[in-house]
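S.,

Sequence below, as promised.
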Amino acid sequence: MTKQVEFYFDIVSPASYLAWTQMPKFAADTGAEILYRPFFLPGLFKTAGSASPITVPNKGRWLFQDLNAWARRYGVPFRMNSSFPMSSLTAMRGLIAWQDKPEFMALGNGFYQAMWADDRDISDMEVIADVVQAAGIRPEDYTAAIQDPALKQRVFDINEELAARGAFGAPTFFVGKKMFWGQDRLDFVAEALTEES
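The prediction came back faster than expected:
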């Protein structure tokens, strides 16, 4: 049976972006199947009683220095978004709606490229339309999907489930019942996979 890693992410999280860029290599190196799990991070903060590290000024300043160092190590583009923090709700609803569809990876790549490489505001509907069309999705189909009441409830339910499992931030990884938080914990995620096998 293929080993699995659940990867919970939000486009607005820069650490989730860095983790996203490493998932193909991580899967190739470990033989694990990556289960991509989009969720709405501010909703989890509320549900779990948590908060973004950037709410602590000194920690926020240090964090972005650290993220830049990791981006250099990974060899991936990273620039602080001039609109940060903005709402990722429209993007995350779409990713949840397309989670099991062929366009999912292109949609995720497009949102992350816009957010953390191209300094675009992913709460802007024109930016969203550009990303959606580039992923091969009709904007009108996207708009209809994200307005579905069942999807809105699903966004809420995911955060309830995550909080019940002990999660409080992004990215969060699960290997079975073992939870890991942070893109800098991938070595521990890999170790957990060997323990599970």
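The chain has one domain: 4-196.

Coffee later?
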